[in-house]
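Hi R.,

As promised, here are both runs. First protein below:
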Amino acid sequence: MDRLAPLDVRDVGCNEYPQMMEIGHTVSSEPIPQKTTRIKDVARAAGVSTATVSHVINKTKYVTDRTRDSVLKAIELCNYYPNAQARSLASGRTDIIGLVVSDIANPFFPDLVKSIEMAAFERGYNTILLNTNYDANRAADYVRRLIGLKVAGVALMTAELDPVLIQELIRKNISVVSQNFGRISEHMSNVVIDYAVGVDEAVSHLASLGHRHIVHVAGPSQLDATNVRRDAFLSSVARHIPNAKTGVYEGDFKFEGGRRAAVEILAADELPTAILTANDMMAFGVMKELHKAGLSIPNDISLVGFDDIAFAELTEPPLTTIRLSRVELGRRTVEALMNNIDQPREPGREVRIPTYLIKRGSTAPPRLSKH
């Protein structure tokens, strides 16, 4: 028997697709131009029920790989676009996750956003990005908006948030992953960044170089993340450098906050031999003011940052800093969030993210020992 010629599925329409495949036609994979394609058209094309199509789209029930592939192919050929609003009404949630960050202008966050967005996309979810600019009232407003949008989950990569709002998300059956919140429950997972390990490595490194006068530029005092890093610094100095001279200056996690803290440090009666900042952006601000004052890094003052953002190795000198992997943080945040969404009655997870020191050119033995 002669082989049938290739058939353009546009000549027969979406509904004839199964029959053409059964009698041996080679079917073009080009989408079918349909004015309005309904879910029952896709079901007919795939030879399944509309309920099965719905389960494939919404991931609400197990479907065999063969059936799922057939449905996905029919969706493509029929040029079918599921009605997101209808799906939301049917399931009580959307395929959207909210991502709340503190400061998108900080180079730390774009890498984190990219990692979370990619991991969510691979699992069929879209991401809404919300930037609080370290404003607790703005963060609260964003959380209420996300509740109104019926998002499937929220990743709270910010410290300036009232715990009451987290509980409100949980009461609305919205899955949550927060950063260093410390509580695990239904719908709730927690990402714990192990600040203390990296800080301890940094202080140990400075102590081994001979530093005995080290100060810390912290973030805003009202934020838990600030207190965790500050306490880790003070504890580590007490452990590694008995009778050390130390001090804490308040910043704001931004470049200008680092500059202001550096002005205070320079005005003190005695300059420290080393400075450890709570993030790299403030380290850059400190570096700017030290250079402006005619001081050399690290010959006059050693400097250590935190985060290891891309610019850290491009400064002069390259910045010694504590690395926190944004790629790992983003990937594991989404994994925990998907676990909450897929298993809403199970307790959430605690995810621990390590930190560790990256040594570069901004640290050296203190100036007094050199003389």
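And here is the second one, sequence first, then its structure tokens:
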Amino acid sequence: MSISSVTTFRAFKSDNFKYYFAGRSISQFGTWMQRTAVVWMIYSITHSPFMLGVTVFAEQFPSFLFSFVGGVAADRYDRMKIVRFTQIGAVVQTSLLAILLLFNHIVVWEILSLSVLLGIINAFDVPARQTMINEVVQDPDDLSSGLSLSAAMSSVSKVLAPAAAGFALEHWNAGICFSLNAVGFIVVILCFSKIQLKPHEKKTGNKKVFTEFREGILYFKQAPEIGLVILMISLIGLLVLPYDTLIPQIAKVTFNGGAATFGYISGFVGLGAVSGTILLASLKRSDNLRFYMLLSTVVLGLGLICFAFTTNFYLALLFVVFTGFGSVMQFTSCNIIVQSEAAPHMRGRVISILLTAIFGMLPLGSLLTGYASEHIGSNITLFIQGLLAIVIALVFYRFLDIKKKKNHALPKKEALVNN
């Protein structure tokens, strides 16, 4: 029996998905190594929780500004070409970081400027890659498997990459992390070159970018149930998910640790995320994703509340497993709902609106989290974020109308015809 015959791994029936998965795995591992190194390096230089928020803001806010353009581009142009250009841009960005660090030229504003560049690249890369999953899976019914496996792979990277980055930071420096990431992006380009897709059909007409994006916004009048899901994930992104901004400070102050401690905590967050995404990949089409999205939000909140006042390091690792489980399972559920229920010709724009909401809220939330932690402490901030997660889940339990959506949870084949 092949692995692709197992329900969880059915997306591997497609050779295109295998190359896609391999490339994304390498890319995600290198990206998380780089992010871990950048965040720890900035905190080591400034010793400021607020600067941790600024670091996240520098990367993610540009993605918020340009994601709507990236979504329109994903619907209008060849997605494979977009991904190739963005991967080349990522090689340049991480190579510049490596050069700065290897020559011991460490200046905060230069590192933040390169983070801004990465945010712009991601604004075009992520919508194109996300919507491409619809094309690389062999059977439309395998979409939920493909999305969940991609999220699981990202979660595995969150487990291994921060730990690897912590080891590299303890024994060498951040430049090694950036150099490995640059090499990884080159391998990603080679993997994606093996993917064989149907020729891209150019859109007729001469609509402006803002006109097409406006069509995406107006589309939510036809599909308000998708809009409510995106609204919920936006609030979570603003008020709860920036909890990870405080992990370097928790590692250093609460547990008197160093880069390795930070890497271990981040890794166990990823371990929980892996569990959540594997569970999602195993669900049946009849299972209620909106229910799982709400349940995972409650699990996220409880994990944060317990983690907030834990002084035992091993208990803290246990609690962040639940935190990682809740946060990634929640976003992946939302992603599957949006991609499976959105009309095919609107999918790129709807995904870009989802990403615009996330990239818009997360950097603002990171600034808010950093500011709050400097005035009321990181532990109180985490506790409040946990409470807010539970409150949001309770409020949206009514608005999402779980019972009516029970039979529309996972993708239907007729809704997933490729563009």
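A quick note on the second one: Confidence is low (pLDDT under 50) at residues 1-5, 406-419. Let me know what you think.

Best,
J.
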